[in-house]
Amino acid sequence: MAQLWGGRFTKETDQLVYNFNASISFDKKFYRQDMEGSIAHVKMLGKQGILTERETEDLVKAVKDILHEVETGELTISHEYEDIHSFVEATLIDRLGDTGKKLHTGRSRNDQVALDMRLYTRQEVLAVDELLEEILQVLLKVMEEHVDTYMPGFTHLQKAQPVTLAHHLGAYFEMFKRDRGRMQDIYRRMDYCPLGSGALAGTTYDLDRYYTADLLGFAGPALNSMDGVSDRDYLIEFLSALSTVMMHLSRFSEEVIIWNSNEYQFVEIDDAYSTGSSIMPQKKNPDIAELVRGKTGRVYGALVSLLTTMKGIPLAYNKDMQEDKELAFDAMDTVKGCLALFTGMLSTMNFNKDRMEASAKNGFTNATDAADYLVNHGVPFRDAHGIVGQIVLYCIDKNIAIDDMSLDELKAISPVFEEDIFEAVSMETCVRKRLTIGAPGQEAMKKVIALEKEYLAQDWKNEIPDWEKSLMK
């Protein structure tokens, strides 16, 4: 058993206890972050004169060599070590002898793992943000192509009023845009370095924590050492944001599944993103959408698990916090996979414009506009509502749309109707006259699309304000 803390103990740990306690099977995932943190720590120790120039150079080179060998497969992270920190330090000792033993000067595994998890999560926040940007780019492209594609808008899964596909997809654009905003917020709040917090009370060594934080790209050091080692708020926030991303993807998936059904036939999913049945040759199943919908639960589970783990932990570090990793890693990988696959499916999807418009007409989505026509001709709204209700009943009985009625049929229900009613209740008119910003009208949609293009042209990572950094000076 390769462990670095045996001096206090008079006999070896039971193998089952050791296995239960070990974290190498999952924390090896952030080997790069662990070694990058070690390099920064060593450089700081050298700058402060705690290590000699030769020791600093030897340690930095050796850690870089280990990192290179791990990434090329020359060196395997062995499970005989308790955790990734033990693996790195033991390997250094094997190569450098006593100099390798100085790596851990002025730090604890508590602030070390806090740093590793923060570095890894920060990288994942940026990776998810990039994937969200990609799906937004695809959504915007589809929106531009379908400003004039009419379809029913729904409430209660009932056809309500006519909209356009651009308008419908624009709702998801706003959702994923908010998701990106959450990534930005999380990144800013977590951008403080816990390294140098020690086990919980800092250290007596003259560390330059500002220097270490700067080397690792943080805004500054965490200002309380107890919070530095025990804070997992940033991870809870990230898992919450990932859960929201999955909720949005799941809602979108549900609509794709409905639209793909024989009853709707609004979309055709590309063969690359669907599967067939082992027994029914006519089937083309929306498996990717269904799996995205299904995997939402496991991301929710990671969030609830970490919230439950953290709720009863006193300050500062406790071993329970080792449970912050496995499910979080799984959630991060799940969300990234779902975003990538859904984006690919969306970019290759075909939309049946004629079917969508016919569905809007046959669903009486222009009934409100027919009532508005009567109101504009002096009929009280409540009476207009009743008249159009009679029209809908008549159309249902005849199995026709309002647009299919003759003027004589309309006048038989209300003499107020004139020839211009047909223009008033056409899909194009119903949508076009909704001009307020945020509405489905073509002019309004073009303004929104222009704004969304401006949004995507910006890169928040280059525009992070300096207010956080000013606090640290």
Report on this structure:
It is a single chain. By secondary structure, the protein is mainly alpha-helical. It is 60% helix and 4% strand. It has 20 helices and 6 strands. The strands form 3 sheets. Strands 1-2 form a two-stranded antiparallel ribbon. The chain is elongated and about 100 Å long.
Topology:
Elements: H1 15-21, H2 24-27, H3 31-47, H4 53-72, H5 84-96, H6 109-145, E1 150-155, E2 158-164, H7 165-189, E3 192-193, H8 209-215, E4 220-221, H9 225-230, H10 233-260, E5 267-268, H11 287-310, H12 326-347, E6 350-351, H13 353-362, H14 367-376, H15 381-398, H16 407-413, H17 421-424, H18 427-432, H19 442-457, H20 467-471
Parallel strand pairs: 3-4
Antiparallel strand pairs: 1-2, 5-6
Please give a quick description of this structure.
This protein is mainly alpha-helical and 473 residues long. It has helices spanning 15-21, 24-27, 31-47, 53-72, 84-96, 109-145, 165-189, 209-215, 225-230, 233-260, 287-310, 326-347, 353-362, 367-376, 381-398, 407-413, 421-424, 427-432, 442-457, 467-471, and strands at 150-155, 158-164, 192-193, 220-221, 267-268, 350-351. Strand 1 (150-155) and strand 2 (158-164) form a beta hairpin.
